[in-house]
Amino acid sequence: MDFLKKIDNFQWRLKVWVQPGSKKDAVTGIHDGCLKVKLQAPPVDGKANQSLCRYLANLIQVPAKNVSIVNGLSSRRKTLLIKGVAESSWDLFFKKYNHFN
Q1: Cα–Cα distance between 42 and 45 in angstroms, integer?
Q2: How many domains does the chain have?
Q3: Is 90:14 a contact under the CB 8 Å cutoff?
């Protein structure tokens, strides 16, 4: 999984490909080496970025403040910094979304 990189015990870099303006929020697989995330929010005034951080925080079960975009604010391809996540939490996440294996 080249899109997820461990920085230290509880910090991770996650590369995502965002498709805003979708019918529902969903993690749909891999696109161009990134985790593909569809969002209902439009790509206007940072709404999709805020929605992305909240959505992923909810899925990974960390506070939204622990998810931040470090690269790609105005791009579909983004790099996120996610804090406070144990490796076992990622294992559970990928078991739930087993189409990534």
Answers
A1: 9
A2: 1
A3: no
- CATH code for position 41: 3.30.1200.10
39-90 pLDDT, tens digit each: 999 999 999 999 999 999 999 999 999 999 999 999 999 999 999 998 888 8
Structural domain span for residue 23: 4-100
Do the beta carbons of residue 37 and residue 52 sit within 8 Å? Answer: yes
**Distance in angstroms (rounded) separating the CA atoms of residues 37 and 60:** 14
As a dihedral over the C-alpha atoms of residue 14, residue 17, residue 21, residue 58, rounded to 10 degrees, the angle is -20
Q: Is the pTM of this model over 0.70?
A: yes
